Amino acid sequence: MNKLIGSLTSPFVRKVRIVAAEKRIEYEFIVDVPWEATTQVPDYNPLGKVPVWILNDGRPLFDSRVIVEHLDYISPVHPLIPREARPRIAVKRWEALADGLIDAAALVFMERKRPAEQQSAEWMTRQIDKVNRSLAALATDLGKNDWCAENTYTLADIAVGCALGYLDLRFQGEMDWRRGHPGLSELFDRLMERPGFKDTVPIV
Ligand SMILES: N[C@@H](CCC(=O)N[C@@H](CS)C(=O)NCC(=O)O)C(=O)O
Question: How far is the CA of 145 from the centre of ligand 1 (A)?
Fold first, then answer.
């Protein structure tokens, strides 16, 4: 059986779990936190990052964008990435922005874990600016639409939902993205009605 290696808090792992749920693809979930000394992740991904998807023949796939592309391709159930070039690129662009938002937010979270005297306020401000600009761009692009791309639920919505969920996980009460972006707030509420999202709420 396919295996997914990942943690219960990673938004990138969550993206893969939601896509697999939507596509009705079964897998064994192996919980592994890449920051722990006992992690096996570098044996499968030289970058030492999760998610890693292990194919039936043992070959590992990474990163999340490659994995979700693979999952969407192998199961005809509920297509999440359009096949045609233009809408496909549009969906991948949404994903790139959502993933980039997570990268910037994660850098802030990591920086705050360092001893206070080693933290760089300038570096953190730079990353927070990226998060805020990305939120504004996502909100503008969403406008009054129900879904991010193609007027239907796609990988774009899943990626954005995982990014917003990550902000709630790590910056609750601090980054109030809902107040400034009601459209994103409504999108997130709509996404949280789906089993794939409900079943993957991050566990700390
Ligand atoms: N671009 C990668 C990012 C994956 C990533 O940053 N994963 C984090 C967890 S959220 C990780 O494993 N970090 C461990 C490390 O950087 O050593 C993807 O989409 O899979």
Answer: 30
Strand order in the sheet with 28-31: 28-31, 3-6, 52-54, 60-61
pLDDT value, residue 130: 98
pLDDT at 28: 98
Question: Are 102 and 11 within 8 A, CB to CB?
Answer: yes
Burial 153-179 (b: 16+ CB within 10 A, else e): bbbbbbbbbbbbbbbebbbeeebebee
- 153 Cβ inside 6 Å of ligand 1: no
pTM for the predicted model, two decimal places:
0.98
pLDDT value at residue 173: 85
Domains present along the chain, CATH in parentheses: 3-74 (3.40.30.10), 85-194 (1.20.1050.10)
| Ligand 1 centroid – CA 160 distance (Å) | 16
Segments of the chain with pLDDT less than 70: none
